[in-house]
Structure formats: C-alpha cells, structure tokens
Amino acid sequence: MRSLPVLTILITAALLCAPIAATADFETSIERTAAKGLQVVVQVRIDGTLENPDATPSGSGVIVDPQGLIITNHHVVQKAKRINIRLHGDDADYTATVLGEDARNDLALIRIDTDRELPYARIADSDKLKPGQWVVAIGNPLGLVSTVSAGVVSHVARETPEHIIPFIQFDAIIDKGSSGGPVFNLDAEVVGIVKSGADRGIGLAIPSNIVDDFMRDVLATGEPQNSWIGVGLQPLTEELAEHLGLSAVTGVVINDVVPGSPAEIAGIIPGDILARVGALDVDVGEAEEVGPFIRSIRGLSPNRIYNTVIYRRHEGIYQPFGVELTPITKPGSPPAEIETAYGFVARQITRQNYRSLYLDAPKGVVVSFVRPGSSAETAGLAANDVIAKVEGGKIENLDDLEAALKSVPEGGAVLFEILRADRMWLLLIQP
Fold this sequence. Notes:
Helix content is 21%, strand content 36%.
C-alpha cells in the first residue's frame, strides 16, 4: 500500500508532461514545414508593365518542378514586360517566361532556366482539407522576403461576390506581396495558392486541386481546358430538401447565375436545384463537397451541349435543359476589366457584387487591384473603391473610364471621386 503515493505521483507527472510533449511535437511540425517550404518559395518581381514601364510590383510564387516550373497569380505577372525571379538564399535574378495563364482563377505558370535541379513542392489533394487543420503560409508580404506565418483553415469552400470558385479561407497573416505564394499542410505539401488577404486574419487561397488541373492543362495544351457553366452553388441539406418537397436529397442549390453564362443562356435561374449534368449525378449536401463538384464540371469537355436536369421549386417538377459548356478562357467569360497607367485595375460592376459595394444597381466601375508602389496606391486608392467620377465626369462603365483617362494631358494629375463604404472621397493621383 505504501507504493500508492509513488504511483499517484508518477501518473500525475505523466499527465502534466503530456501537453508539453504535444506542444513540442506541434512546434516541431511547424518548424519542419517552414524549413522545407522556404526552400521552394520564390520572390516574383516585375520590371515594368505594358501600361506602365516604370511599375515594379512584386509577389510570391512556389517551385513545383525541379526543372524550374513556378506557380503564381495571374494578377502578379499580368502584362509584365519582364519577370524576375529570386530564389531562396540566392541573390541572382532569373528571367521567367509565361507558359500559361488563367485570368478567371488568377493562376499563372511560369518557368526559369537554371543549370541545376531545383527543390520543389509537391501538390496535395485539397479535397482532404478540413476546417481547423493547421497550415503554413510563406511569401514576401510588403517586400519582407521569406516570411513564415501559421494559422488554421477557417473554411474549405468560401465563395465571394466576384468569384465562383470556392476558396480556402485561412487565418495565417498575409499582406501585399503574399499573392501567389503557397499555403502548406504540415507535410510541407501545397494545399493552396494565396489569392488575397489582409491583416485581419482573413486569407483566401486557390485550392491546390484547381492549381494541379491548371498546370496539367497548360503543360499538355498550352492553355486551361476547363469548362465553365457560370453558377454559384450551395449545398442541398436534408432540411432544405424536405422543406422544398423533394423526394430525394440529391442535387445542389444554384444561388447565383452569371449574366451571359452558359447557365443563363440555357434558362437556368437562381433557386433551381441542379440534379444532373450529362452523365454526372449531383449530390452536394455539405460545404466541403462544393469544390469537388465544381472540379467535376470543369473536367467536362467544353463546346458540347449537355442534357442538364433541373428541379424548379416553384413549378415542383424536374425539367431538362440543354447547356453548352464553354471554355473557361472564352473571351468575355471573365468580368471585363482594364489596367491603367496609374497602377490599378478597374472592373465592370456586375450583378454579383453591386450589393456588397453599397450600390443600388449593377452599373459602374470598381477597383479590383492596386499595384504596390504605384501612384494609385500612394494616393490612397484601394481595392473595392467604386470610381464615381474622373475630373468631374460621371463614370458608368469601362469605356467612360478609358475615355476620361485619355483626355488627361500627358503628365497631368487626375482627380478621382470614389465611393468607399457608402462615403465619397476625393483622390488626386499623380502620373
């Protein structure tokens, strides 16, 4: 009986040490992932754009092949005159060539030529990612190279007003310059490519499965071969199916239809239940299943008409529709936009985003991207600013904006009137 106190002490000590051991293992996993990830993350620096030869924006990228293949964002290298790549621990600049771009999914595949094989990252299956899972983001925010940040996955299929593809939402800290950088799981595999984020702990990443499909298509054909239907989706839950009077809980809810898309042309409307596309049965009951289904649509051959079955809840019947899926790179499919000489990209406001911009109607022009270090950024212009007037002239579309900027004397400053969160601001942008 005298040994009981000793046994109690040993058990108590073991229990107290368990959290310490778990914490040490976790920190080791983060450190190991960071060490491997730093070897494959690159800095992407632009030496002038077609619109602004003096522009020098920068971003991030990740090596995905030992022969110098690099994935980054389309908006990082868009219209670049020269792309310079700096590898980890190497002060030399390597000139990159663009192999393929996907404007809708904001992806670009570029390549550098070296005399050696490079370390590279493997691409993971992003469909296996779960909320709460730890990830590590590495990039070059605000020009601070090789910055490591860790966080958890907040959502695996986050949709935004301007994008149809479901993003991975995570809370690792990223900022300007992080765009195009990788998000790793704790096996140092790429689960996503950073699309955007801010210092509020809300980052968005393009799922790695979409990245992998894009890369394979570009290497095989020179361009993405994905099909596009043009709808926003939400899961069809058991409760929702029962309320709608459906006999089976199969399908997915269409909660948005892009104007001019194959879906709209075919007559599909928001609120319809998508049950089948060609031979593809639809069964999306959880948010995690939205991404894999969209990838299934993307994998169908474009420029073909697919017999599509829709349940129209107001009529209470299933109806067939003929939907001709178009290539995702078809001209006019992505939202219309222009890049200006002042260092910002402007996009036509659509039915998908006008409410989130505090507008009463889907018309006008919104800033979708501001290049770091540009005159627009210096003046205070930011993404999601709505351009109301330029030099007193009303701006209702991209043609109005282009005409207004062309009328400005060369070398002259431009006065912008912008709406930001329902407030008017005057910004004077120097050339």
